[in-house]
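An instance as discussed:

___
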Amino acid sequence: MKKVQKKYEIEVGDTTSAIADKLGLSVAELVYYHNLHSGVVDEYIYGDILPQKLKYILLPISYEQEIPIPPKVEYSSANVTKATGKTMKKYGITERYFQHEKMINELDFEIDIMEEIHDDLYVATFNKHSVRINNSDSFRLAEQLYYKIDQCIYPLKLSSNHDGSFKSVVNSKEIKERWIRQRPELEEYYQGETGAEILSKAEEALCNAELYGNRLLNSIFFKLWHTPVYRSYAYGKTVEYEDHYLIFPQHTGIKFKVSLNSDLKINENNKFIIRLTGSCIDSRSENELWNAPSNALVNRNPEHTVKGDIRMVFKIDETDKRIFSVAGFIELQGKNHHKRIEIGIYEL
């Protein structure tokens, strides 16, 4: 087997979304891979309009067979379950946040994940690093503080249920001890009202494992990572359930009715697909979500509820049944507001 770097030559009139459609890729996957491997800042892709200097888009590496093999259609088992044993993988993550069509923030980081699966033991250890905000590793003061708090959290060890959903924080004692050691230095350096508020919330979360475990699922990465995709999809079964996704930090999660559907056909790269789709069924109004504080009492007008969608594609490795990638978006739209989060998670 040999690795082959693919390139797409840009044609007149091409846009990011048009190229993604041509190649059968999601926009998030196309943008993430190109920006990760392009060494020229002026050739990074940020929106649908491509940079003038850009001549080629770098595409995900493919594997070409030295000896041609006739295509053979194979399907994964309808009972999707993680293989037992230990795996160690590295992932790159890009999260992009939009108000209307304007991107207001972009977060990039890498995370090492070691998973151990034995009998009823489902434990993963996460180590986060290489954090960049808006393509910079120079952080503002509040961002520096969050970064320092992050260093107390990792390595983070989490257990999950058989279906992949979150169960508990395993190493809460170690996290608390790291926080207690680090806190005096942070309190001395990061003073002022904002710093005190951030440190107070960190204290509450890191010293309370149950509370912290629930707050982890407010992170779009950890929320998607613990999507319950490991289950039976026999006879083309669609799995439906209700779930909450944090879109507004000042409010509890937004309620969605979602479905899981499988495409168990194994592709040439030994992957198969599970799709997560859904619609917002939250009863809160546009004004309540965008403008009101979390403790405000607001008269709800059923005509002013928001519309929302979630669309995610999970690619699963056939060999060990671990997540290879997740790409998609979640968005909410009212009469006057539009908020969208795009995410790409890819094994490196």
Residues 107 and 249 are 16 Å apart (CA to CA).
